[in-house]
Automatic annotation (TrEMBL):
Protein name as annotated: Cyclodeaminase/cyclohydrolase family protein
Lineage of producing organism: Bacteria, Bacillati, Actinomycetota, Coriobacteriia, Eggerthellales
Pfam families: FTCD_C
Organism of derivation: Adlercreutzia wanghongyangiae
Residue stretches making up the Cyclodeaminase/cyclohydrolase domain: 5-182
Length: 204
């Protein structure tokens, strides 16, 4: 049942998958955990009053999970031109200019992808907020675990944004990316921490 292909690739010396891909993968795992809570909730008389909302959360979580799995490959695809740009010759003024242009172009996707990973992870946390409160009490610990994993993926993906905006010449674009990154960290982390704390209280 356990497929270690991604883990083995991550552990190898290959440049991809790396931190971004791992972040997306962990985010997908968090989404799957939240979905498990939802699936253990639907169809139970005890939770009939939230059945419709749980079904809606399950649909959103499935879409988020699929998107995060797509972003595993998208992160690798974004890294390839970045690595190529860093490896370009810079012996002449013309070569240096070409290398700089290629690098600045590649940095855009290298920031956009981890930002999208972060957005998706915040959505997972938001689902965990609802499911931890209204989902099956038998799986409340899993809702908490989902929120914790989603926060970890959120923070891990932010590191890719940070390292890449540091090389951007376009200060305005870098500032926009930085602001969104910081907003996502604040929002997602606060919600995830609240879920964790509430789950701990219920289990204590």
């Amino acid at each position: 049942m356990l497929d270690t292909e991604f883990i083995d690739a991550l552990a190898s010396k290959a440049p991809t998958p790396g931190g971004g891909g791992a972040s997306a993968y962990v985010g997908a795992l968090a989404s799957a955990l939240a979905s498990m809570v939802g699936n253990l909730t639907v169809g139970k008389k005890k939770y009939a009053d939230v059945e419709e909302r749980v079904q809606s959360e399950l649909l959103e979580l499935e879409a988020t999970r699929l998107r995060l799995l797509e972003l595993v490959q998208a992160d690798a695809d974004a890294f390839a031109p970045l690595a190529a740009a860093y490896g370009m010759a810079r012996s002449t003024d013309e070569e240096a200019a070409a290398q700089k242009a290629a690098l600045q172009a590649a940095l855009v996707d290298a920031c956009e992808v981890p930002l999208e990973i972060m957005r998706q992870c915040v959505q997972v946390v938001e689902s965990c907020v609802f499911l931890a409160k209204h989902g099956s009490v038998m799986a409340v610990s899993d809702a908490g675990a989902g929120a914790v994993l989603a926060k970890a993926a959120l923070l891990a993906a932010s590191l890719n944004v940070r390292i890449n905006i540091g090389s951007m010449d376009d200060a305005t674009r870098a500032a926009i990316y930085r602001d969104e990154m910081e907003d996502l960290i604040v929002a997602g982390s606060a919600l995830a921490d609240d879920v964790y704390d509430s789950v701990v209280r219920r289990l204590s």
